[in-house]
Specification:
Naphthalene 1,2-dioxygenase Alpha Subunit, Chain A, domain 1; single chain; 26% helix; alpha+beta; 203 residues; seven-stranded antiparallel sheet
Length: 203
Protein backbone atom coordinates (compact mmCIF):
# COMPACT_ATOMS: atom_id res chain seq x y z
CA UNK A 1 0.00 0.00 0.00
CA UNK A 2 1.19 3.57 -0.62
CA UNK A 3 2.77 5.66 2.12
CA UNK A 4 1.04 9.04 2.35
CA UNK A 5 2.73 12.32 3.22
CA UNK A 6 1.96 13.39 6.76
CA UNK A 7 -0.79 16.03 6.68
CA UNK A 8 -2.50 17.46 9.79
CA UNK A 9 -6.03 16.06 9.84
CA UNK A 10 -7.43 19.55 10.50
CA UNK A 11 -6.32 20.56 6.98
CA UNK A 12 -7.96 17.64 5.18
CA UNK A 13 -11.56 17.47 4.09
CA UNK A 14 -13.70 14.52 5.01
CA UNK A 15 -13.23 11.61 2.65
CA UNK A 16 -15.84 11.21 -0.07
CA UNK A 17 -16.16 7.92 -1.92
CA UNK A 18 -17.69 6.47 -5.06
CA UNK A 19 -17.98 2.96 -6.51
CA UNK A 20 -18.70 1.84 -10.06
CA UNK A 21 -18.77 -1.59 -11.67
CA UNK A 22 -18.18 -2.08 -15.39
CA UNK A 23 -16.61 -4.27 -18.07
CA UNK A 24 -12.87 -3.78 -18.46
CA UNK A 25 -9.33 -4.91 -17.68
CA UNK A 26 -7.21 -3.45 -14.82
CA UNK A 27 -4.32 -2.91 -17.23
CA UNK A 28 -6.51 -0.49 -19.19
CA UNK A 29 -7.78 1.48 -16.19
CA UNK A 30 -4.26 2.06 -14.84
CA UNK A 31 -2.99 2.81 -18.35
CA UNK A 32 -5.00 6.05 -18.34
CA UNK A 33 -2.34 7.53 -16.06
CA UNK A 34 0.19 7.46 -18.92
CA UNK A 35 -2.14 7.82 -21.93
CA UNK A 36 -1.94 11.59 -22.35
CA UNK A 37 -3.58 11.69 -25.77
CA UNK A 38 -6.90 10.47 -24.36
CA UNK A 39 -7.02 13.42 -21.93
CA UNK A 40 -7.45 15.80 -24.86
CA UNK A 41 -9.43 13.53 -27.17
CA UNK A 42 -11.84 11.95 -24.68
CA UNK A 43 -12.02 14.50 -21.85
CA UNK A 44 -11.30 17.64 -23.92
CA UNK A 45 -8.61 18.95 -21.59
CA UNK A 46 -6.23 21.59 -22.96
CA UNK A 47 -2.46 22.16 -22.72
CA UNK A 48 -1.72 18.57 -21.69
CA UNK A 49 2.01 18.25 -20.93
CA UNK A 50 4.10 15.43 -19.47
CA UNK A 51 5.97 16.91 -16.49
CA UNK A 52 7.79 13.77 -15.35
CA UNK A 53 7.87 10.72 -17.64
CA UNK A 54 6.64 7.29 -16.68
CA UNK A 55 9.17 5.42 -14.56
CA UNK A 56 9.02 2.05 -12.85
CA UNK A 57 10.82 0.47 -9.91
CA UNK A 58 9.75 -3.10 -9.21
CA UNK A 59 6.03 -3.25 -8.52
CA UNK A 60 5.68 0.55 -8.32
CA UNK A 61 5.50 3.13 -11.09
CA UNK A 62 4.83 6.84 -11.39
CA UNK A 63 4.29 9.74 -13.77
CA UNK A 64 3.36 13.43 -13.61
CA UNK A 65 1.55 15.66 -16.08
CA UNK A 66 -0.23 18.99 -16.17
CA UNK A 67 -3.23 20.33 -18.06
CA UNK A 68 -5.99 22.90 -18.06
CA UNK A 69 -9.41 21.52 -17.22
CA UNK A 70 -12.90 22.90 -16.53
CA UNK A 71 -13.83 23.26 -12.87
CA UNK A 72 -17.46 22.34 -13.34
CA UNK A 73 -19.12 19.25 -14.70
CA UNK A 74 -20.68 19.24 -18.19
CA UNK A 75 -24.44 18.99 -17.99
CA UNK A 76 -24.65 20.40 -14.46
CA UNK A 77 -26.93 23.38 -15.00
CA UNK A 78 -26.77 24.42 -11.35
CA UNK A 79 -23.26 25.87 -11.62
CA UNK A 80 -22.99 27.70 -14.97
CA UNK A 81 -20.12 29.93 -13.79
CA UNK A 82 -18.03 26.93 -12.78
CA UNK A 83 -18.84 25.18 -16.04
CA UNK A 84 -17.22 28.05 -17.96
CA UNK A 85 -14.19 28.41 -15.67
CA UNK A 86 -10.96 26.48 -16.13
CA UNK A 87 -7.97 25.78 -13.91
CA UNK A 88 -4.40 24.68 -14.46
CA UNK A 89 -3.85 21.37 -12.64
CA UNK A 90 -0.80 19.18 -12.07
CA UNK A 91 -1.32 15.45 -11.48
CA UNK A 92 1.23 13.23 -9.74
CA UNK A 93 0.32 9.56 -10.20
CA UNK A 94 1.76 6.60 -8.33
CA UNK A 95 0.83 3.04 -9.23
CA UNK A 96 1.17 0.17 -6.78
CA UNK A 97 0.54 -2.83 -8.99
CA UNK A 98 -2.55 -2.73 -11.19
CA UNK A 99 -5.13 -2.43 -8.44
CA UNK A 100 -4.00 0.57 -6.39
CA UNK A 101 -3.34 4.10 -7.67
CA UNK A 102 -2.65 7.26 -5.68
CA UNK A 103 -3.36 10.45 -7.61
CA UNK A 104 -2.52 13.85 -6.14
CA UNK A 105 -3.71 16.93 -8.03
CA UNK A 106 -2.28 20.39 -7.31
CA UNK A 107 -4.39 23.43 -8.19
CA UNK A 108 -2.15 26.51 -7.65
CA UNK A 109 -4.86 29.08 -8.29
CA UNK A 110 -6.97 27.73 -5.43
CA UNK A 111 -4.06 26.87 -3.15
CA UNK A 112 -5.48 23.37 -2.93
CA UNK A 113 -4.61 19.73 -3.54
CA UNK A 114 -6.80 16.70 -3.96
CA UNK A 115 -5.78 13.20 -2.98
CA UNK A 116 -7.47 10.29 -4.72
CA UNK A 117 -7.01 6.65 -3.82
CA UNK A 118 -8.24 4.55 -6.75
CA UNK A 119 -8.86 0.81 -6.37
CA UNK A 120 -9.63 -1.41 -9.37
CA UNK A 121 -10.63 -4.94 -8.37
CA UNK A 122 -11.59 -7.73 -10.80
CA UNK A 123 -14.87 -9.25 -9.59
CA UNK A 124 -15.52 -11.58 -12.56
CA UNK A 125 -13.82 -12.33 -15.88
CA UNK A 126 -13.76 -9.05 -17.78
CA UNK A 127 -15.54 -7.21 -14.97
CA UNK A 128 -14.10 -4.57 -12.58
CA UNK A 129 -15.25 -2.93 -9.36
CA UNK A 130 -13.79 0.58 -9.37
CA UNK A 131 -13.64 2.46 -6.06
CA UNK A 132 -12.31 5.95 -5.38
CA UNK A 133 -11.75 7.86 -2.14
CA UNK A 134 -11.19 11.64 -2.36
CA UNK A 135 -9.84 14.22 0.07
CA UNK A 136 -9.11 17.93 -0.41
CA UNK A 137 -6.20 19.72 1.25
CA UNK A 138 -6.19 23.53 1.42
CA UNK A 139 -2.72 25.02 1.77
CA UNK A 140 -4.00 28.33 3.09
CA UNK A 141 -5.74 26.84 6.12
CA UNK A 142 -8.82 24.89 7.01
CA UNK A 143 -12.07 25.87 5.32
CA UNK A 144 -15.38 25.73 7.11
CA UNK A 145 -16.60 22.16 7.22
CA UNK A 146 -19.51 22.78 4.86
CA UNK A 147 -17.18 24.31 2.23
CA UNK A 148 -14.83 21.34 2.60
CA UNK A 149 -17.63 18.88 1.98
CA UNK A 150 -18.83 20.79 -1.08
CA UNK A 151 -15.33 20.97 -2.57
CA UNK A 152 -14.67 17.26 -1.99
CA UNK A 153 -18.03 16.28 -3.47
CA UNK A 154 -17.48 18.44 -6.56
CA UNK A 155 -14.01 16.91 -7.03
CA UNK A 156 -15.37 13.38 -6.62
CA UNK A 157 -18.27 14.03 -8.98
CA UNK A 158 -15.89 15.44 -11.61
CA UNK A 159 -13.64 12.38 -11.30
CA UNK A 160 -16.59 9.98 -11.63
CA UNK A 161 -17.78 11.97 -14.67
CA UNK A 162 -14.38 11.41 -16.30
CA UNK A 163 -14.45 7.70 -15.44
CA UNK A 164 -17.89 7.34 -17.03
CA UNK A 165 -16.48 8.84 -20.23
CA UNK A 166 -13.79 6.14 -20.22
CA UNK A 167 -16.08 3.19 -19.41
CA UNK A 168 -17.42 2.62 -22.97
CA UNK A 169 -13.82 2.56 -24.24
CA UNK A 170 -12.64 0.14 -21.55
CA UNK A 171 -15.64 -2.12 -22.19
CA UNK A 172 -14.67 -2.60 -25.86
CA UNK A 173 -10.91 -2.91 -25.41
CA UNK A 174 -9.13 -6.23 -25.61
CA UNK A 175 -5.89 -6.55 -23.69
CA UNK A 176 -2.85 -6.89 -25.95
CA UNK A 177 0.54 -7.05 -24.25
CA UNK A 178 2.33 -5.57 -27.28
CA UNK A 179 -0.15 -3.09 -28.79
CA UNK A 180 0.18 -1.29 -32.10
CA UNK A 181 0.63 2.34 -31.14
CA UNK A 182 -0.39 5.59 -32.78
CA UNK A 183 1.52 8.86 -32.75
CA UNK A 184 0.92 10.63 -29.44
CA UNK A 185 0.08 7.51 -27.43
CA UNK A 186 2.80 8.35 -24.94
CA UNK A 187 4.82 5.89 -22.84
CA UNK A 188 2.38 3.00 -23.20
CA UNK A 189 5.08 0.50 -24.26
CA UNK A 190 7.13 0.85 -21.03
CA UNK A 191 3.89 0.83 -19.04
CA UNK A 192 2.75 -2.42 -20.68
CA UNK A 193 6.19 -3.92 -20.11
CA UNK A 194 5.90 -3.04 -16.41
CA UNK A 195 2.31 -4.36 -16.21
CA UNK A 196 3.21 -7.82 -17.55
CA UNK A 197 4.68 -8.87 -14.19
CA UNK A 198 1.20 -8.86 -12.67
CA UNK A 199 -0.46 -11.03 -15.30
CA UNK A 200 -0.44 -14.79 -14.89
CA UNK A 201 -1.02 -15.43 -18.59
CA UNK A 202 0.47 -12.87 -20.97
CA UNK A 203 0.43 -13.76 -24.59
Amino acid sequence: MPELDAVPMTRLSRTTTACLEFDGHPVATSENSVDLSHLAEVHRYAEVVMVRPFSADGTEASASYSMTRPIGIPGDGRLPALRRAAMHVRFDVRLFGLGVSLVEATIPRLGARTRQLVLATPVAPGRIEFRVAMQVLYEGGRLRSIAERIAARIATKAFVHDVRQDVPIWATQRYVSRPALAHGDGPIVPYRRWARQFLEHDG
